[in-house]
Write a structure and sequence with these properties.
CATH class of the largest domain: Alpha Beta
Radius of gyration: 18 Å
Shape: globular
CATH superfamily of the largest domain: P-loop containing nucleotide triphosphate hydrolases
Number of strands: 5
Strand order of the largest sheet: 2-3-1-4-5
Number of domains: 2
Length: about 200
Amino acid sequence: MSKFIVGLTGGIGSGKTTVANLFAKQGITLVDADLVARDVVAPGAEGLEQIRAHFGDQILLDDGNLNRAALRELVFNTPKERQWLNQLLHPMIRAEMLRQVASASSAYVIMVVPLLFENGLDKLVDRTLVVDISPELQRQRTIQRDAVDARQVNNIINSQSSRAEKLAKADDVIDNQGEISKLECEVLALHQKYLHLSGKA
């Protein structure tokens, strides 16, 4: 029987990690796209080898890790190179995420993907859950958390699907503008719903 997968997403600063960790507290396995993306370019990984072969040693730090800033610089202004990089890494990330889902033993799996809709990964999940907050709160939280300026935050927000687009595509929505206790109640209610949907209730 195939695993029931919930795709968890939301804009930057919306509180995806907080929500994911509340599901983890219920014993649910998390498969995090950001962590997988780091793993596929770790020293010794095939992803990093191919990137080095393509761009040269300039994209490596002295310790052999990927120099993300240098790579970002190389691909940001060159659409062709960015496309090459995405075509290399996206299938690797997708395959590793599905491998982790398959080996999970919890009743269902939460796949945490910041760009779930943008990268078409919603096709891999049975249900989508969007963590929603107002754009004002999004900016405020991100500026505080990442110590970045408002212009940078606006650029990131503008590069993601709009709030309206995410909400239109969501099967479930968590409003994360209130207290943590309210958030915990919302997660528990969804947990019961997903157990039921996965046939494990």
